[in-house]
Specification:
Length: about 210
């Protein structure tokens, strides 16, 4: 159960529309390392996470990623509203405009549509948490790249906030991973896993 608070996690107030910038930032809406994939990844993984603390981290961060999805879509909306046809054509926004007008639709900066292959849910706590650590670093790198390309301070401000939260998420997933590892068999999990590595006992009559 979620309670929706009718305000953005961090304010977005962009004064100058710019379709070129919108096409770049759109990747953090529905791109390979964007907020849509992040929210679906963590909220899917939480169901099979055996450690309650780690499950709580997945639920918390997955929920926050939904708030980040809202922020990114607001940025894209403010960058594309009230554009003239000339601005749309000159900015290279025309192909998107033909399909979606200025509606918010999940795709990467390169125009690849979002799909469920953008996120993983493996059901193994170690695998999933390592996946999440990598995902947060990839999202942080994407925001770094956006900050290198964008000059508008009204856009830079919320993007810096989003980047900072990726760093915090990375730290929290690191803590969750250590919590899960502390509960593993004292023998190295990767070197010895009884359910896989012990020889199976034959049940045929000759071996009894």
């Amino acid at each position: 159960m979620w309670n929706y608070e009718k305000r953005l996690q961090y304010p977005v107030n962009i004064k100058t529309p710019n379709a070129k910038i919108a096409q770049i930032i759109m990747s953090q809406y529905g791109g390979p390392d964007g907020e849509m994939g992040a929210s679906m990844r963590y909220l899917s993984q939480r169901f099979t996470m055996p450690n309650r603390k780690a499950m709580g981290v997945l639920n918390d961060i997955g929920t926050e990623e939904l708030a980040h999805l809202e922020m990114v879509s607001t940025i894209v909306h403010q960058l594309t509203k009230n554009l003239s046809m000339e601005e749309i054509e000159c900015s290279g926004f025309a192909p998107y405009y033909v399909d979606h007008t200025v509606g918010i639709w999940p795709q990467s900066a390169g125009g690849v549509p979002f799909n469920a292959c953008e996120f993983q849910s493996k059901g193994d706590p170690i695998t999933d948490l390592h996946e999440n650590l990598a995902a947060e670093q990839k999202a942080r790198t994407t925001y770094d790249n956006i900050l290198r390309l964008v000059k508008d301070p009204d856009v830079i401000d919320p993007i810096r906030f989003l980047r900072a939260r990726e760093v915090v998420h990375y730290q929290r997933f690191g803590e969750a991973l250590r919590t899960v590892q502390d509960e593993l068999d004292f023998k190295n999990f990767y070197a010895f896993n009884p359910s896989f590595d012990m020889p199976a006992k034959c049940s045929c009559d000759s071996c009894k």
